[in-house]
What we know:
Strand content: over 45%
CATH topology of the largest domain: Immunoglobulin-like
Distance between the termini: 9 Å
Helix content: under 10%
CATH architecture of the largest domain: Sandwich
Amino acid sequence: MCTTLKILNIQWNAPTIPPSEGYTIRYRPVGASNWTTHVLANPVATSVAIPNVQACTDVEVSIQANCGDGRFGFETTTIIPAGSRQCRDYQLVNSSGQSITYSYFTCDGVEMSTNLAAGQTTYFTASTDYGSIRTSGGTLTQVTT
């Protein structure tokens, strides 16, 4: 389930002398063979926003300084989007005869709270980086794929 898309903000320390032609940033899900490349022409920039990253996906990012007389090699780092280590899929089953309430935090840290009718089952993706999942009843299990 972990299909929530988010923006991953990448930051780096600028070199003492900024590259005259900015940076090339490439990124991919860890284990993927193809890179997506983004050229950032601003030589004083120290961050970029990468859109449409799956919340539960580790992302490998490389940054290259582009200078007029050449390019410095890519510096490779594997980074983890905020909350992704604890962003998991859950199932909540309410087998009681009454409605229950439950609350959790999304992978982006937004708190959600809702009711689950008697005899119903729901699935949701939550992050325990921001707080625990709370229920007033029912059976909560982590879904593994």
